[in-house]
Design goal:
Helix 1 (3-17) crosses helix 6, helix 9 crosses helix 10 and helix 11 (332-342) runs antiparallel to helix 12 (369-385). Helix content is 31%, strand content 27%. The chain has helices at 3-17, 22-40, 62-67, 69-72, 79-88, 114-128, 130-133, 170-180, 189-197, 219-226, 332-342, 369-385; strands at residues 91-92, 95-99, 109-112, 137-143, 159-165, 184-187, 206-210, 230-236, 239-244, 250-252, 257-265, 268-275, 286-287, 290-294, 307-314, 319-323, 326-330, 350-355, 358-363, 391-396, 410-412. Bound molecules: zinc ion. Residues 245, 247, 249, 251, 299, 301, 303 line the site of zinc ion.
């Protein structure tokens, strides 16, 4: 199928679905999911003898998908073949291979068809910029290039796309980006913040934070610089999961993904996703690593798609500490809030669990000493209140822009629990 037709078809479907009522939407989604379970899922060897009902399928995760990579894609591509393709140009025949930017040894691989690649683009544009499209737009996508998805349609009458490789560092393409004069920018929040700090000459009409968790501490800096509300695209190796609407509701991409939720404590959930429009690499009841807070209210925009109040961080970054009452967990949002609420002058930090009883708080030397002391005190008080046995060490050091990995202000560096 023609590439732009695939993107346009996806655009139209996405718009059409967004106008349905919730009951109508659920009927449409149930039928689409049924079709996927009957027709697409059994084409992957792992599911050859799978039960009919979604609820009876096993829960999957990254470790399982990577260990039995060839059984989860309908072409029998092995992980070794996928890695070899990635080393070359990311192409395995007509398929595209991509990898997540995760920590080394823990990178997720994915494989998609040409059609799926363009569907992604159409969906993004339909959700993100329906009103801009008809006026013609220039979209700058600034993401790690090894994600493979983005090397899509570069140019049409209405859309010009330009890709800037994060791995090369912003200074290598600053001139080209400014000359392109994008009307839409899609980039990780740390890069958007870098544009503000370095005063890049940009005048977009819409700005999207993507590929990393948007930390509330970055939001005002970015919004003040662009004088625009910051929108969000929540996506991972595994696909596109949520996009903000014009009313700033962060809507789950339920028009391509069926979500189930597992409780994770503190009112948070982790999603199990079934990507019912994927036909190459099958993803069913796949456990994501993210922690979400679901909205209780529907969004004012009228879309039937459910909203998320916040993507809090990753399950891997929950601190795992010991207390006299046994093992205890502290989620990233609670830790982050303790630091930020300690003093309003704090606008950047790193909080890392380095041992089962050790935590490091890093703050830049430019921050006033009393603010740093207040943050140090706040983290100690939070852990003491929960009777956690841990020493918090304060380190004053610059926090450089890292383009080679995801920014995680709150990070747990212990070996995974599972
Ligand atoms: Zn909305």
């Amino acid at each position: 199928m023609n590439r732009l037709a695939e993107a346009a078809g996806s655009f139209a479907l996405t718009r059409w679905v967004s106008r349905k009522t919730r009951p109508d939407f659920e009927r449409w989604q149930a039928a689409a999911l049924r079709r996927f379970l009957d027709r697409d899922l059994p084409r992957a060897p792992f599911y050859r003898h799978a039960p009919d009902r979604l609820a009876d399928l096993p829960v999957t995760d990254k470790a399982l998908l990577m260990a039995r990579f060839d059984e989860f894609n309908v072409h029998g591509l092995t992980a070794a073949q996928a890695r070899a393709a990635l080393e070359r140009d990311g192409c395995a025949g007509s398929l595209t291979v991509g990898a997540s930017t995760g920590t080394s040894g823990n990178r997720g691989l994915f494989v998609i068809s040409e059609a799926e690649k363009y569907r992604w683009l159409g969906t993004i544009l339909a959700k993100a910029t329906p009103d801009l499209l008809w006026r013609g737009m220039r979209v700058a996508v600034i993401l790690p290039q090894n994600t493979g998805l983005y090397d899509s349609a570069r140019k049409s009458r209405l859309i010009k796309l330009a890709f800037f490789d994060l791995a090369n560092g912003p200074e290598s393409w600053r001139g080209a980006l400014e000359a392109f004069d994008p009307t839409v920018i899609i980039a990780p929040p740390k890069i958007l913040r870098h544009f503000a700090a370095e005063n890049f000459r940009l005048q977009p009409k819409r700005v999207f934070s993507a590929a990393e968790t948007l930390d509330p501490v970055d939001l005002p800096v970015i919004e003040n610089f662009f004088r625009l509300p910051l929108d969000q695209i929540y996506m991972a190796t595994e696909g596109l999961f949520a996009v903000t609407c014009r009313e700033v509701g962060l809507h789950l991409a339920e028009d391509s993904v069926f979500f189930e939720f597992e409780a994770a404590g503190e009112g948070l959930v982790t999603p199990l996703v079934t990507a019912f429009r994927r036909q190459t690499q099958i993803m069913a009841r796949y456990r994501m690593n993210d922690l979400l807070r679901l909205s209780k209210e529907p969004c004012r925009c009228g879309s039937p798609l459910r909203c998320v109040d916040e993507i809090v961080g990753r399950m891997d970054d929950v601190f795992r500490l010991r207390s006299p009452d046994g093992p205890m967990l502290v989620t990233p949002d609670v830790l982050r809030n303790a630091v930020l609420k300690a003093d309003h002058r704090i606008d950047d930090f790193r909080l890392v669990q380095t041992a089962s009883d050790g935590v490091e708080l890093r703050l830049p030397p430019t921050l006033a000493d009393d603010a740093a002391a207040a943050a140090h005190q706040a983290v100690q008080a939070l852990l003491a209140a929960r009777k956690a046995a841990a020493t918090v060490t304060l380190i004053r050091a610059p926090l450089p822009l890292e383009t080679g990995r995801k920014l995680r202000r709150v990070e747990c560096r212990l070996e995974p629990a599972r």
